[in-house]
Specification:
disordered N terminus; 4 strands; 110 residues; 22% strand; four-stranded mixed β-sheet; globular; 4 helices; alpha+beta
Length: 110
């Protein structure tokens, strides 16, 4: 009886957490899809911020407003409120972190 109760609670826990696990998997796929682009070397979501490190050879050609509009369209699904585009060229040259652009995903919502 005790074993059946334990198994039942385990299954209940799995089904209860299934949406969170699916969301985590979707978040990983979203970040991996950004990293797969030639335009970006790295991407991570930390504390409601999507931090992007562009490829240094292409960052000067990126349209940050357009990128922000596309990515901010995903902010509710992937749990970020702001997109930071970092200066990869500056970082590689000086090891100093510098932001190129900060895009507020809530600014367009009313």
């Amino acid at each position: 009886m005790k074993t059946m109760l334990t198994i039942g609670l385990l299954f209940l826990g799995l089904f209860h957490n299934a949406p969170a696990l699916a969301n985590d998997e979707a978040d990983v796929k979203f970040i991996d899809s950004i990293k797969a682009l030639d335009a970006f070397d790295d991407a991570v979501v930390k504390d409601d911020v999507l931090i992007l490190w562009p490829n240094p050879t292409t960052q000067q050609f990126l349209n940050f407003e357009r990128i922000g509009k596309v990515l901010c369209g995903q902010h509710q699904v992937n749990g970020f409120l702001v997109v930071w585009l970092m200066d990869s060229s500056h970082y590689r040259a000086s090891k100093e972190v510098k932001m190129l652009e900060s895009l507020n995903c809530l600014a367009g919502e009313s």
